[in-house]
Amino acid sequence: MKILVCISNVPDTTTKIRFKDNNSVFDTTGVQWIINPWDELALTRALELKETSGGAIEKVTVATVGLTGAEPTIRKALAIGADDAFRVDSDPVDAYFTAAQLAEVVKKEGYDLVFCGIESSDYNGGAVGGMLSEILGFASISSVSAVNYENGAFTFLREIDGGKETLSGNLPLVAIVQKGIAINPRIPNMRGIMNARSKPLVVIPAASTDNQTQYVNYELPPAKAKCKMVDAENMTELVHLLHTEAKVI
Amino acid sequence: MAVLVYTENWDGKFKKLSYELISYATKLAETLNTSVVALSIGNVDEAELRALGQYGASKVLAAKDGRLGSLENKAFASVIAQAAEKEQATVVVFAHNFTGKAVAPRVAVRLKAGLAAGVAGLPQSTDPFIVPKKAFNGSSFANLKINTPIRVLTLFQNSFGILEKPAEPTIESFEPTLNDSDFATSVKDVNKVTGKILLTDAEIVVSAGRGMKSPENWAPLEQLAETIGAALACSRPVSDEGWRPHEEHVGQTGKVIAPNLYFAVGISGAIQHVAGVSSSKFIVAINKDKDAPIFDTAAYGVIGDAMQVLPALTAAFKEFKASN
Ligand SMILES: Cc1cc2nc3c(=O)[nH]c(=O)nc-3n(C[C@H](O)[C@H](O)[C@H](O)COP(=O)(O)OP(=O)(O)OC[C@H]3O[C@@H](n4cnc5c(N)ncnc54)[C@H](O)[C@@H]3O)c2cc1C
Ligand SMILES: Nc1ncnc2c1ncn2[C@@H]1O[C@H](COP(=O)(O)O)[C@@H](O)[C@H]1O
Predict the structure, then answer these.
(1) pLDDT score recorded for residue A162
(2) Which chain B residues have a beta carbon less than 8 Å from that of A145?
(3) pLDDT tens digits, one per residue of A208-223
(4) Contact (CB, 8 A) for B137 and A123
(5) Under an 8 A CB cutoff, do A162 and B296 touch?
(6) pTM over 0.90
(7) Considering the domain B2-183 in this protein, what is its CATH number?
């Protein structure tokens, strides 16, 4: 059995978001790129599952759709412990395009379980995992906060409005994961970094599709008014303000 | 033509969120010169379905197939796409919640439609179709142009509001075709939280961070929450440490919420935390450090020790409630 983890390359979460060219382009100057946080957790969990599967899970592959700029991120995924990697050599034009490229990788290599994150932390697209499952005709389970493999079967914990459900699912399947799937992401060690250099990273050309969506421009939210300070000894005043000024009580 | 809205139910009932979706769709349908069709999946009684008319739905489709009792993404996507085709919908609207996020991308693929997830308002233009959505974790909005003739949107909760526009909807039973291959997962166990205000529904949220020092110190937060009918939330380290359950974690990697009022107690206000709460109408920060970054986002601030401020605040609310 083989697992694929889809990795998107995103700005570090502390990045100060700025735009240029009349707010039409995201300004990437000085941006540090990282593995999307959910994808990093998904990879961590996939590796744990492989290690404890008694050989049932043969390998964990990572794939990304991105230009050469995404290469350090995919190398980092290899250093964390992925066995091999694919990079589809194209800008991830939009969600459908990206999902269609990843679907080709899944079909070609025959993955049984695919992990995607619930969203990319840049555009918050929240689309690729679901689209990928539909293109492939696979089942999907979303908002997954735990995955286990026992006695030859996977179980998934899914968050729903106001609770949690435990599900079993027949493979092939796309699991769209959120927090909880792993607590701390694995950090590459020296050996991992050395090994990553010799692991296969296959670059494949993109298949063409139409682009369904495009970002036109961006807006920053209006500046917040200055915070009004209330004396800690005077909570009656705070309640009064919430009632008469904010009108939320 | 139509704007189709998927209205999820919770044990046979709709929520404020469902009415917000219909309100949004009604406004959008006016611009597109068309009408709103709501689709309900599961067992919902007639009066509840009819109530969707209150916000402008002119037709309600009710699919009651017994196999659709729990969320099977593939099957739900199939049902919704079939309804969209039947009604010739040019826009399909979902909530940006667990179900919407799970199903909308699949429906988009089926309908060859472009998707905008996390929509924050009405389109600025419908031809071309350009709609604002949240991006960069709430730090900005992106205007997304959708090039396809059908568009799928997931609407961010509390970003539009509820507008009444009474209509008498026709209620139609809907029987989509479903295949066994649409069902590949099964729910083994459900663990529902009962009797508590859900974080995603709450108008008021009391949230706390590492500044509380230990899980034993949550009582004053619980008392405040109970007094004002608030849900509880927390910062990531608090849930990572196991002080509070993961469902309460808000922020970039946790839940993204938009209540009317958010209390941030003993929370420094890291960018990843603020990402999950910046859409709140008002934020009140309680922190002992006057330079804590949370004060840059808050509307009201109190500098002090949470363990002293909280009981005083609860007392003030109680007094307010008694005299109002
Ligand atoms: C990829 C990534 C994703 C992340 N996602 C999230 C996320 O989704 N949500 C999230 O919350 N964090 C997230 N974080 C973590 C985030 O960066 C911060 O570390 C975290 O939010 C800090 O939590 P805190 O405010 O509870 O704790 P601290 O930063 O330790 O702040 C504690 C605050 O309490 C105050 N305080 C101390 N004692 C008292 C007292 N007695 N009374 C009143 N105030 C007191 C202090 O002045 C301080 O401001 C993420 C980090 C990364 C790298
Ligand atoms: N360019 C990409 N390459 C590979 N996987 C991606 C890419 N973009 C998104 N994904 C996957 O899809 C998930 C959701 O991303 P998005 O739909 O962009 O919010 C991510 O967490 C990744 O698992």
Answers:
(1) 84
(2) 246
(3) 887 899 999 999 888 8
(4) no
(5) no
(6) yes
(7) 3.40.50.620
Calculate Rg over the CA atoms of chain B. 21
Confidence (pLDDT) at A238: 98
Please identify, in words, the CATH class of the domain defined by A2-221: alpha beta
The residues of chain B scoring below 50 in pLDDT are: none
User: Any residues with Cβ below 6 Å from ligand 2, and which?
Assistant: A 6-8, 36, 38-39, 63-66, 92, 95, 98, 102, 116-117, 119-120, 125-129
A63 pLDDT tier (thresholds 50, 70, 90): very high
ipTM of the complex: 0.96
Give yes or no for residue A86 having a pLDDT over 90: yes
Q: Do B73 and A241 touch (CB under 8 A)?
A: no
Say if residue A157's pLDDT is above 80. Answer: yes
Buried/exposed B34-70: b ≥16 CB within 10 Å, e otherwise: bbbbbbbbbebeeebbebbbbbbbbbbbbbeeeebeb
* CATH for B204-322 (3.40.50.620, 3.40.50.1000, 3.30.413.10, 3.40.50.1220): 3.40.50.1220
Q: Is residue A48 within 8 Å of A182, Cβ to Cβ?
A: yes
| Residues near A245 by beta carbon (within 8 Å), at least 6 away in sequence | none
Q: Min CA distance, A175 vs chain B (Å)?
A: 10
